[in-house]
Amino acid sequence: MIGARCIVGPFCTIGAHVEIAEDCELVSHVVVDGHTRIGRGSKIYSFAAVGVAPQDLKYQGEPTQVEIGERNVIREYVTISRGTAGGGGITRLGSDCLVMACAHIGHDSQIGSHCILANAATLAGHVTVEDYATVGALCPVHQYCRIGRYAYVGGGSVVVQDVLPFSLTSAKRETHAFGLNRVGLQRRGFSSEQMRDLHHAYKTLHATKLNTTQALERLKAEESVSEDVRYLIDFIESSTRGVLK
User: Fold this and answer.
1) Catalytic: 176?
2) Looking at the domain that runs over 185-237, which CATH code has it been given?
3) Which of 39, 51, 94, 125 is catalytic?
């Protein structure tokens, strides 16, 4: 099903089970396959492949899905694989995202809204990228890793553990967090009070002699814990792969 006012350019291929909402544009040579739903106002550039079979040898042709929100921009040569039966069956991309050229979103990955995946960012299967996060160019992200809200991962960083929310994480000799993503948070309208609370939390985590467990206990024991700091604590405590510090 193709909605009203859509533009489908030359040499595009749209599968029988695809649903494209109104006001979308497929520039040219775009492949949209599988049980894929694309929200209104999205634009997909040439040679992108959306909803294609996952690169997983266990996949046996099950009718799994891709769900894409509204007003996304998906650039040239992007690949977005549909889910697998063993991984939840659905790959999701939220709304208002920019997915730059040659990026890959692997099967069963869950991408939030307002995210940026720069050129050739490569997300293996089962990756979670939360709202307002940015993954820099040429970043490979290991299976089952999470990238927290408002995180910024610098180009060329190899991500094999969870990336802390609000963090500026990048690679010199190895990938680790350098502190708060100050510029990104300011651009998103974080108040000075929010910045102060997060700076204090990060200082407790990184600039004391406490281990992670001790630092979290100290933060939880403080008289008032802001919503942002509580989310940061919960993110770390729920990690199964460990976090990049």
Assistant:
1) no
2) 1.20.1180.10
3) 125
Distance (Å, rounded) from C-alpha 139 to C-alpha 235? 21
DSSP 54: P
DSSP state of 107: T
Catalytic choice (33, 108, 162, 228): 108
CATH of domain 7-129: 2.160.10.10
Phi first, then psi, for residue 176 (nearest 5°) are -155, 165
Q: What is the pLDDT of residue 178?
A: 77
What pTM value is reported for the model?
A: 0.94
125 carries an active-site annotation: yes
Q: Nearest Cα to 155, choosing from 122, 130, 127, 126?
A: 122
Distances (CA, A) of 47 to 75, 190, 236: 9, 38, 38
Q: Is residue 210 a contact partner of residue 218, using CB atoms and an 8 Å limit?
A: yes
Residue 169: CA count within 13 A, CB half-sphere: 33
User: Which of 83, 107, 126, 148 is an active site residue?
Assistant: 107
DSSP bridge partners of 8: 26
pLDDT digits (tens, 9 = 90+) for 200-229: 999 998 878 889 999 999 999 998 899 999
The amino acid present at 79, given as its one-letter code, is T
Domain boundaries, the chain: 7-129, 185-237
Over residues 28-83, the pLDDT tens digits come to 999 999 999 999 999 999 999 999 999 999 999 999 999 999 999 999 999 999 99
Q: Which two tokens stand for residue 69?
A: 């929100």
Q: 88 an active-site residue?
A: no
